[in-house]
Amino acid sequence: MAHCSTALALLHGVLTGMDFADRYTAAGGTLAEDRAAHLYWRLLDALAFAPDAEKVAVPWREVGRTALTRALLTRRLEEYVQALFDRYA
Fold this sequence. Notes:
This protein is mostly helical and 89 residues long. The protein has one domain. The chain has 5 helices and no strands.
């Protein structure tokens, strides 16, 4: 769940990444109830993309997502990390 959330945040924006867990549980999935666990695993995954979130854009650009610039992905990653702290800390 954490990796999908990060990928969605980078590809489609922070709100999409943050909403993934809610949509997952609405569809019948289950998650740990511990907010600290959510923060830990989602933050750990997001930080794996730092300091160069652009590295994940290469295959996306090859299929036409040329707007995924280094600046955009860096901004989205930083905003996603902040959103994680805002929601779970």
